[in-house]
Structures are given as C-alpha cells and as structure tokens.
Recover the amino acids of this structure.
C-alpha cells in the first residue's frame, strides 16, 4: 500500500513539473529524469495514462531522455510497441514512434510484426497527424534496413497510396519513396 501511495504522490509531483509544453520545461524534466532514473516508472505511468496533456508531455520527456542517453528507456519497448494503437492521444504515439526508430534494429523479433502492422496502419491513415505518419514511415524504413526483403513490400504498399496523399505528407512521401527506389 505504501508503494501505491508513493507512486500517486510521485505522479502529482511530476504533473507539477510538467506544467506546460515548453522546451525549457521539457529540458528541465529530462535533466531530472536522467539524474533520478527511479522516476522512470512515474513518467511511464503518466505517458500511458491517456490523460492529456500529461501523457504527451511525459512521453516527450522519456523520448528526449532516451535520445540523450541511448538505451535509457529500452526497458519500456515491450510495453510501448503493443500500446501504439491503444493510445487515445497522438502525443505518446508520435514521441514513442520517434524513439522506436532508434530501437528497430534490436527490437525483439516477436514485436517486429506488431510494430510493422501498427506503423503501416498509421502511415496509410490520413486521419493521423502528419508527425505520427512521418515517424511511422521512418520506423518502416528502419524495418526495411533490418529486413531487406520487406523493402519492396513497403515501397509497393506506400506507392499504391501516393495519389491519395495531399498536404505536407504527400510531397514528403514522394521524396521518401524516390529515395527508397534509388
């Protein structure tokens, strides 16, 4: 019971730290998390909470801490991959996809199929924000590097959709596909 109370108190303290979405706030929280890695479970709980805006802010802090210290959040990968399609808000999805690009070469084989399906779905879903779609395509690219036999499948599937793309994602996807076909 004491641990639950401590986690609840930790979550409330983290919410106070994540009072806005500014870069300075995120940088401060990243510094705190890296200095006190025992706070990772609290940040994880907030990131998975579907409580906007704290889920977005906490996932941003985790991703940025992991970018600064590669491998810092590797223990979360088995939780993140199957949760990608369950997040109610796009912030955690966007941030964790960005982080997963770095981990794709080492992700457990059992999770790669789940990751591929989720990323292909996001990449083709025009209702997803551009940043989510972009990061999903970047994960697909990393999967194509890891599994070269997937490259032609990924390219062909995305090429089928290219004529449906409008707005900023369309030109970016065309350039991406040109690079993949080169």
């Amino acid at each position: 019971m004491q641990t639950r109370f401590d986690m609840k108190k930790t979550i409330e303290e983290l919410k106070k730290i994540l009072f806005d979405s500014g870069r300075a706030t995120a940088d401060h929280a990243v510094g705190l998390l890296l200095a006190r890695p025992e706070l990772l479970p609290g940040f994880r709980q907030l990131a998975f909470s579907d409580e906007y805006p704290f889920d977005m802010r906490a996932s941003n802090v985790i991703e940025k801490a992991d970018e600064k210290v590669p491998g810092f959040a590797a223990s979360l990968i088995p939780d993140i991959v199957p949760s990608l399609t369950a997040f109610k808000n796009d912030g955690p999805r966007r941030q964790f996809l960005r982080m997963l690009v770095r981990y794709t070469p080492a992700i457990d084989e059992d999770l790669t199929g789940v990751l591929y399906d989720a990323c292909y779905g996001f990449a083709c879903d025009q209702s997803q924000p551009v940043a989510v779609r972009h990061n999903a395509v970047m994960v697909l690219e990393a999967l194509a590097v890891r599994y070269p036999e997937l490259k032609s499948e990924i390219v062909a599937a995305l090429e089928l959709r290219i004529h449906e793309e409008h707005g900023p994602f369309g030109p970016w996807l065309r350039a991406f596909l040109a690079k993949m076909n080169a």
